[in-house]
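Input (structure):
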């Protein structure tokens, strides 16, 4: 087995580095604590070691060792459940919740990242066997670039236009352009919303984008992202300041309203654009005759 030591080390290092690249703190702030950060790095190391040892096990041959890959896959599936439970507990005390769809998307992402680390390690170990160190370095770099690009995913800005919008009141009904939101009874609250509130319109580029942002989970994810990046003046006793996203059913345009801590219109537009498109909200091209007619 000493003959394959270089193969195992090269693959394990490549997979672990790939996991470090994928595991970065961003505006979602998760994982945002040291123990969570370390646990995911360690799981990435285990996944990389399993991927790296597969090729030596096959070449030796020792097919029994390959069965550990199947065992690892079943263990990594449990990671999704663990992450889901953790995020659900964290979400209980959020003023503006992520929502179950967003939580499920994050949990799936962490599961997939371990598989990508394993795949990177596997490809690097194959390259090391075929071309030694130069080939392993090349394949490792290409794999890391691929996983970083693959995990980026679509954002709302890729499928929609986001433009500033006007907040006004129709008697006591809060309006964003022509989209009605909530009834605000207190005059003081209405005046504060007009003075400090911000709003945007999210305009879908096609019928598929329209179906995506129609999804309630996607709109909740947008509101949560805006809150994380700009803050909110909502508190438990001021529900009127809750960031809301409402859709115009006729046009498919979504209006978003918030009373942020940082009153910056450009930052609000950027926050909306950076919100990831959730897997559960994705809509494929409509292939029916009705779908083609609606897209015209």
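Output (sequence):
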């Amino acid at each position: 087995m000493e003959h394959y030591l270089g193969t195992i080390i090269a693959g394990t290092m490549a997979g672990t580095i790939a996991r470090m690249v994928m595991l970065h703190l961003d505006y979602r702030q998760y994982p945002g604590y040291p123990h969570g950060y370390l646990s995911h790095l360690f799981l990435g190391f285990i996944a990389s070691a399993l991927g790296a040892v597969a090729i030596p096990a096959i070449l030796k041959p020792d097919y029994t060792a390959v069965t550990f890959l199947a065992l690892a896959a079943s263990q990594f599936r449990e990671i999704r459940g663990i992450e889901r439970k953790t995020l659900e507990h964290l979400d209980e005390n959020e003023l503006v919740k992520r929502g179950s769809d967003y939580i499920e998307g994050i949990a799936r992402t962490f599961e997939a990242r371990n598989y990508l680390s394993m795949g990177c390690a596997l490809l690097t170990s194959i390259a090391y066997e075929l071309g030694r160190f130069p080939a392993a370095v090349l394949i490792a770099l290409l794999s890391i670039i691929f996983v970083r690009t693959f995990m980026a995913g679509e954002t709302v800005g890729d499928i929609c236009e986001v433009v500033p919008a006007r907040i006004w009141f129709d008697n006591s009904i809060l309006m964003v352009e022509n989209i009605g939101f909530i009834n605000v009874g207190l005059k003081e609250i209405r005046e504060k919303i007009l003075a400090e509130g911000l709003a945007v319109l999210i305009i879908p580029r096609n019928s598929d984008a329209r179906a995506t942002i129609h999804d309630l989970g996607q709109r909740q994810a947008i509101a949560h992202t805006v809150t994380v990046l700009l803050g909110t003046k909502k508190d438990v006793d001021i529900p009127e300041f809750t960031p809301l996203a409402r859709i115009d059913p006729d046009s498919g345009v979504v209006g978003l309203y918030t009373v942020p801590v940082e009153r910056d219109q450009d930052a609000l537009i950027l926050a909306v654009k950076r919100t990831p498109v959730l897997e559960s909200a994705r809509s494929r091209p409509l292939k029916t005759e009705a779908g083609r007619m609606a897209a015209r």
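Notes: Residues 287-296 have pLDDT under 50 and may be disordered. The chain has two domains: 2-152, 156-295.
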